[in-house]
Here is the input.
Amino acid sequence: MTTKRSIFVIPAVFGLTVGAYADTVYVNEGGSIQSAIGAASSGDVIVVGPGTYYESVNLQGRAVTLRSADGADATIIDATGLDAPAMLIENGESNSTVVDGFTLTGGTGFYIGANTHGGGMFIDFANPIVRNCVFTGNTAAAGGGLAIRTMTSGLVSNCRFVDNLATAGGNYGGGGVYLQGGLPRLENCVFEDNMASAAAKGGGLSIF
Here is the structure.
């Protein structure tokens, strides 16, 4: 027999709408994606309604599916002014962690020493599946749109990288995407109008 866990949540406090069981959580505009992730357990599905969510989201090692209800054009995670990536995946997440259908914008990356990595999203020693996302208007020293370090079995598919900027020289760069270590897979992705500064390498993609 399978036992499902119920949670009582006050929407006015958490900004969430929770179904009968905790295996599906709905987040509506004005609510917090991060709060939903913090309350989630392995196998849960978090469905995010259309709107703009002004936050930097950390998956916190959760084996969950985080997906938009109406696709990337309608569902935006905006980290403007937060001095952080729009999304951070760095706690050993596996293929059981899925991110599907968001626009990630306004991010400035995660600091490693003096340099930022992954303005839109930073993946470090993790193997999530990221699909149907748009990375636009992000800036970082390495990987304006996305930076990946030591991904061995993850997948980024059907994503668009548009108008992102990498600013650092040396072995950095990658206005759209910066890859360092491992065997990351990018499939069916589009790169448009990304840029690296004069000292950096790879307007669209940099592999180190």
